[in-house]
Amino acid sequence: MKRWQQVAQIGGFEFRRFFKWKQELFSLVLMAALFGISAGWGVLKSSLEETHTVAVVAPFELPNIPQIQWQPVTDLEAARTALANETYSGVLEISADAEQGYGAQLWASNRASWQERVQQVVQAVLQQRKLSGLPLSPEQVQLVNTPVAVTVTISRDDASQDVEASTAIPLLILVSIMVGVFGSFGLMMTAITQEKQQRVTEQLLTLITPSEWMDGKILGITLHCLKSMLTVVIIMVLVTVLMSVIKGGVTNLPPISPSVVTISVLFALIGLVMINAMMAGFAATIDDPNHSGRTAVMLIPALFVGAGFGIMDSPQGILAQVLSWFPLTSFAVMPVRVADGGVAWWEVAGSLAVLVLATYLIRSAAVRVFRMGITMYGKEPSWRMMGRALIGRKLS
Amino acid sequence: MQVDVIGVCKDYATVRAVDEVSLSARGGEILALLGPNGAGKSSLVRMMVGLTQPDSGSISYQTGDVASATLATTQFGYLPEDRGLYLDRTVQDNLRYIAKLRGMARDDAQKSIANWLQRFDLSERASEPMRQLSKGNQQKVQLIATLLHSPQLVILDEPFSGLDPVNQEFVLSVLEELRSAGKTVILSAHQMALVERMADQLVLMNRGRVIAQGSLAEVRATLQPQQSIRVQFADTIDEAQLAELEGDMNTVVAHPNNTFELTCGGQIDLAQLLTRLQSLAPVVQFSRQHYGLHELYLQAVQA
Asked: At the top level of CATH, which class does the domain A51-145 belong to?
């Protein structure tokens, strides 16, 4: 059988090994629920929050605030006594002040988030009261109340979307890559350490070479990670649309450029292959994942994706430019830069070429470590042995 | 297929695991590797299937007139000592995967799997995950994985371990069937009684070296150069009389009831010995002691 056929067989097996319909459906529902809850958290929180009754001693009425019920009272001391008995959540006294116009004091039994909202509303109301006490015309009052507008004009052609929209696409890309990297960590770790513990290795190594085996694993698990990434993207988009519809607004998805999608997928795919190669080589050196101190090392690739999040506020800065060429971070950083716009084609091509070359070299080194580690039971190779295997030196 | 191992050595760090081992196994023959743990059997087997390479010496495989230094995956089946399959996958999935990696066509694989599962009485458990099977049944699935592509050379490291006596007998019958079909079977085992019954060739190893090899009779002759004879006389005799036969006897050990155990060196004419013993007193029992492979194995290893 040809090498690519063996790799395809192994890849298919590895993919099916972790693809279970019931689990997939369950995780889809769970993910949709989680995104839904996080997207609609504000609405959910306010709808579930209890109503607080606040006794008010004030010379005028206060406007209504959600979850706050004003209870006008005249006897402040009686109200404070009732506060101690938990009849009220708080007692608010608003009094006229000779110098400032008004003064306000809020008593409460415990510190709670509703007090901040009360403070903000009372401040705003008293500010308006103060303004209305000045000899100003309604037009002047309105003028004072209108904040000064600062208009930001972006000169680049492709930067027509608003700020929220411009961060949405890179965020979506990075979150999906992070999902892929974590998936890669979990699956590769499980795949290889289980095989070592279940003693599958010796049987298989008489049928396939270590490099075929590792490449097959990279193929199958990369496909699985891509599936997870795609699922996350679809769920995120669907939930965003759904939440917009529920809120009664128009769905306002940022425009998605095909070139951004293509470049992002390409970088993410090659980056995942590179990460999976690193994981495969390293996982083969772990004897027991529950007791090995090396397990944490496999989380390092998550830091590479973290670099993408780190440059989101300045995607065209010097640091972002450097990281978008560095192969361990470029797969996460370059898509963010491309989504931000204004990256020259030669930069994209050059970074991609460096990434491909690095992936090839890392995969070659990983095969050597994998070959050494996969048949080692009951002990882990030393760092020195791993180092020698990495550079292709014979183990002494 | 004929397997020729010539002067093979293998070192691991400072330990010589296999030391100048030579053997030859032919088609239609069962060769059993015997020896205590650490004797070098598994190291030798791993080299035969290409998992490791000899440091010196050679291993070659001859099919008809074609000799080769390597084996194609379709030519051999290997049951490793450290064995296992994917416990979370079903029996069928595991076997299909192995069949695919061996390059078997889908239909052929399916037929072979169904056939073997039926023979091993596992058809009804084909869609169960491996972890739900008993150790013995898992072992049977392993054996099916080794045999499902009908290999010319079958190499089995401890094939009887984990099996109950009924299944040991069944595996034995399968091995005999393979021999009848002209396959070459090489195995390592600790079940001496089973090995004694089926093996055409024995290779007894200790500390990496071959200490005896050949047919059972040849191994016996190598390991038991002395014959042990038990004789019981009708009347009491003096041990000194037996000592007169000193030229033929190495040792004489007295037992109750006028019974003696005589150890004779080299080949001895038993009829002549009996005549001489009868001249001392009437003999009521005269028998040659046969040690089983188990005793020979223990004696040789302990020596």
From this structure: alpha beta
